[in-house]
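Worked Example 4.2. Consider the chain below.
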Amino acid sequence: MSTTRPSLAGWARLALALSLLPLLAMAGCAAVMANLVKATATEQRSFTASSQPSVIVDTYNGPITVKVVLEDKVEATVTKTGSGANKEAAEADLKNVSVDYSQDGETIRIVARRTGPKSFGSSGAAVELTVPARAILSLTTSNGEITSEGIQGQITARSSNGKVDIRGAKGKLDLETSNGAIVIDATEATLAAGTSNGDIHFAGTLDKGKHTLATSNGSIELVLPAAAQFQFEASTSNGTVTNRFPGLQPSSGKPGSNRLAGQVGSGSNADIDLKLETSNGGITLEPAPSAEAPRP
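Applying the procedure from the previous section yields the following structure tokens:
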């Protein structure tokens, strides 16, 4: 009894067919996602607070936006999103998006979670806030941008996928995202900014102390007043470090290389200590054309 073995051409066709299976599955998933129907529902809450409340937001699959209100109160607008194969299924899916609101003294919490089974589609909650200018913010989203404008209190922001854009800020800023750029416009800032994939841009003034800007894949641009005095250490694995401030006193490396450290100015510049680091991108230290750093 003889056994017929597949020819080399047969094996090649089989291998090709097997290699196409993941692509076909992905194409099928994309087609299903494209045909999903979405439904939204909006909730609003208002909280009486002092001029400096602590506001904590933790959401998923949605952006967080914060603006200033002149009154001593916090207002939240939360837009929930559900999805399904049709309108009825999408509206039913909204029940799986739970948002909890609470206030304990001056601490206000808004937490969004999916309570039902994981969905093949897209559900989430977008949060819009208006708060007093001196509010202290802790903002977290698992997938979405975080933006704020005019907040003078401490800001902690975390996103696993999205841009972090902070404008008109003042004070301590602790900002992280896994996939997105970080853009900051602030005065008297104490800065810690990090992203694993994206550019970092800072324009403004820095308070005394240590400051870090780090990205794994992107450029870093630091714009300070022309008269700023500081010390810094900058390094990149693939790119160059460019300093455009006059009066640089280098301690290691050289301008135009991938590593440069030194002091700018002759005052007590040790009070402002900068560490700038990227694995893939350039680093630029740039004097602003006027005493006030421009918005990026």
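The first strand starts at residue 37 and ends at 48. The longest helix spans residues 8-34. Compare this with Example 4.1 before moving on.
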